[in-house]
Design brief:
alpha/beta
């Protein structure tokens, strides 16, 4: 019987285009990951990573991954629900959020990779096996510092690469007119056949979201994402009720329960689930099925190399976020063809860390 025998972790900083939250004066823009390799007594290796914490928490995240991975040593990797439940109790007496949840998510992903390799199946087949191709939208660009005059060229470049959808960040301009102008420039550059999403990252008040949102609607938005503070569920319900454009939200919430509250209050039209904050693939799937029971679609947030497996396992998935931040860590990341992500058919996640990249990006 397989047992977890050992593990290895590294902190890596992968350079990326400037974004909204991790730009520090004495460091280049980068996303930090704690990579994890779980190894069994019969020679199987599962990989995962934990991420999405501020620079100041890098060492804390590494320590959390190391401490919780040690708790997994000696366990049967097939017992994912049992292991994750025990890790939640070990990390916070069953009421866990923050860095500990990110660490558990990374470990749980590696366990799913091992399960796939033991059974000889790709993870997306084990999770549900709904489809082998996914619609993706281009993300990781159009940050708020992106100059308005550069927006058309960037949008056209995405279209030339085969993307049929892309996301624009708003919420940083000094007036509603300037916000709307940015979307107008993009829509005119890419045409009416491209799906456009707008992300506010919680930057508006309820009144701003309603007032500006109504003006944005004429440009045919696919969704408006996180327009207000994620904890103001009643305010978000007001926004969703006032606008015809669907409201997407959920990436900032930890665990499963907040999604039930949002769905019950009808404060969300599209459920966006973040792998790190929800706590891994198992809990991600539980939220997706919960959304299905409310007849609400689901989209992913970040780490497409992992979440493509979850999105491909559900019938209510509509778009996978193609955020390339983590992809340099792998020898062969998932392929994009004609604006769609092609699911790997090899056992497990279908991924292998590029050891040269790990060495290049290692911190310390």
């Amino acid at each position: 019987m397989s047992r977890i025998q050992s593990f290895e972790t590294h902190v890596v900083a992968v350079p990326r285009e400037a974004g909204p939250s991790t730009d520090i004066a004495d460091k280049p823009p980068a996303t930090v990951f704690v990579t994890l390799q779980l190894r069994t007594n019969d020679g199987i290796e599962g990989i995962g990573h934990a991420t999405l914490v501020p620079w100041s928490m890098n060492n804390a995240l590494k320590a959390a991954v190391d401490a919780l991975a040690q708790e997994v040593v000696g366990r049967n990797p097939m017992d994912i629900e049992s292991i994750v439940t025990d890790l939640y109790w070990a990390a916070g007496a069953g009421s866990t959020a923050g860095v500990a949840v990110h660490a558990i998510a990374g470990i749980e992903v590696a366990l799913w990779d091992i399960r796939g390799k033991i059974t000889g199946q790709p993870v997306h087949k084990l999770l549900g096996g709904f489809t082998d191709r996914l619609k993706v939208y281009a993300s990781g660009s159009f940050w708020r510092p992106h100059r308005p005059e550069d927006i058309p060229e960037t949008g056209q470049a995405f279209v030339e690469q085969g993307f049929r959808a892309m996301k624009l960040r708003l919420g940083g301009e000094s007036s509603p007119a300037k916000e709307i102008e940015r979307l107008r420039l993009l829509r005119e550059a890419v045409g009416d056949d491209i799906d456009l999403m707008v992300d506010i990252n919680r930057g508006w008040s309820v009144n701003q979201a309603v007032t500006i949102g109504k003006q944005l609607e004429e440009y045919g938005l696919y969704w408006l994402e996180d327009p207000i503070d994620h904890l103001d569920l009643e305010g978000q319900a007001r926004v969703a009720d006032a606008l015809t454009v669907p409201i997407a939200a959920g990436e900032y919430h930890y665990g499963i329960e907040p999604f039930r509250y949002m769905l019950e209050r009808r404060s969300i039209d599209i459920v966006m689930i973040d792998l790190m904050r929800v706590g891994g693939l198992t809990r991600w799937m539980k939220v997706a099925h919960l959304a299905e029971s409310f007849n609400v679609p689901v989209v992913s947030h970040l780490v497409p190399e992992f979440l493509c497996h979850a999105m491909a396992a559900i019938p209510n998935g509509i778009y996978t976020e193609y955020m390339p931040w983590s992809l340099p860590l792998y020898k062969e990341p998932p392929k994009i063809e004609d604006g769609e992500l092609v699911l790997p058919q090899t056992p497990g996640l279908g991924l292998e860390f590029d050891e040269d990249a790990i060495r290049l990006y290692r911190m310390g």
